[in-house]
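User: Sequence recovery, please. Input:
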């Protein structure tokens, strides 16, 4: 079920579910910290949180805009982080924005899609119960868990893109003439979008790992460096995917040219055969036309028509055979010159 969720993490590190954002704001003074997991936000809900939590208006505005690049804004009372979640399905990459507000005693995650399904929420709850000592250290550790889950989802999308590239290569090799190169161009566009997103997310992690953000304790800095290592690896994969797409494009063009060359050679051979046959029959056609128009039997006399027509056909046979062997001889001489 797609809905916003609200949690209270007690001083002891226990996770408690709450019903509304208002109830969550009220319980903040009781100790521990809270997590607002907001789905499909409205300006009314964000305004309800922005004043008591001192959220910057520009950051709130970014939560309602789907065309932002990953970034980090550090303010006096909180830090705003914009990250991307990837989903590759039906050979298309979908990039969904995730906005995070990190405060001293709260964490807000805002997205226009369901950030975590029920299974993943249960996984996060299990992690919180196992890593009780770390989770009670503050919302920065909870934010690490959420970012780590988002990065894991990126890996799933990257694996799907790799499989799509392998499938495209197999289809291209099987039948280059029928392969639609538009699919490869769309894959290239998705890879470039993925690369751009990961590039900026690496910059976000670099700023976090500089240890100058008072909201992120130094003892959990190593967890964010681990996320950075994953993003760095994904960026290298995106670079290699871009090279693979370029190579596949070149290979497809080369295979098409090869197929066109083969077709042209077959056409040339057919034309040569037809020309060869036509050249042989041209003089025979001329003789047949002359003989037919002039009533050949009148030239030799009606009584000699059997002999005259036999000699006429014999002459045509000799001329045809002579033309055939002369053309074969000329063709062999030309092939010998080309071989040199």
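Assistant: Recovered sequence (340 residues):
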């Amino acid at each position: 079920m797609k809905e916003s969720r609200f949690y209270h993490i007690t001083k002891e590190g226990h996770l408690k579910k709450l019903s509304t954002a208002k109830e969550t704001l009220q319980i903040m003074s009781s100790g521990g910290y809270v997590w607002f997991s907001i789905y499909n936000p409205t300006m009314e809900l964000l305004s309800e949180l922005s004043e008591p939590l001192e959220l910057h208006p520009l950051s709130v505005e970014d939560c309602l805009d789907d065309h932002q690049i990953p970034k980090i804004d550090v303010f006096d009372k909180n830090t705003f982080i914009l990250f991307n979640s990837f989903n590759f399905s039906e050979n298309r990459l979908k990039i969904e924005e995730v906005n995070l507000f990190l405060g001293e005693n709260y964490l807000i995650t805002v997205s226009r899609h369901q950030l975590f399904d029920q299974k993943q929420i249960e996984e996060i709850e299990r992690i919180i119960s196992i890593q009780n000592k770390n989770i009670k250290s503050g919302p920065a550790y909870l934010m690490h868990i959420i970012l780590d889950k988002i990065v894991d989802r990126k890996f799933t999308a990257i694996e799907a893109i790799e499989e799509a590239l392998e499938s495209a290569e197999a289809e291209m090799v099987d039948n280059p003439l029928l392969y639609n190169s538009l699919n490869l161009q769309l894959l290239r566009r998705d890879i470039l979008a993925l690369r751009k997103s990961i590039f900026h997310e690496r910059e976000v992690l670099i700023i976090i790992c500089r240890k100058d953000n008072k909201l992120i304790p130094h003892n959990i800095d190593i967890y964010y460096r681990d996320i950075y290592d994953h993003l760095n690896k994904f960026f290298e994969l995106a670079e290699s995917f871009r090279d693979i797409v370029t190579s596949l494009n070149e290979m497809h063009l080369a295979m098409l040219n090869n197929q066109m060359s083969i077709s042209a050679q077959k056409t040339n051979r057919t034309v040569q055969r037809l020309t060869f046959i036509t050249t042989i029959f041209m003089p025979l056609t001329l003789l047949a036309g002359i003989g037919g128009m002039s009533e050949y039997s009148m030239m030799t006399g009606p009584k000699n028509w059997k002999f005259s027509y036999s000699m006429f056909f014999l002459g045509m046979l000799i001329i045809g055979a002579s033309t055939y062997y002369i053309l074969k001889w000329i063709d062999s001489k030309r092939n010998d010159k080309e071989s040199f």
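The chain has a mean pLDDT of 83.
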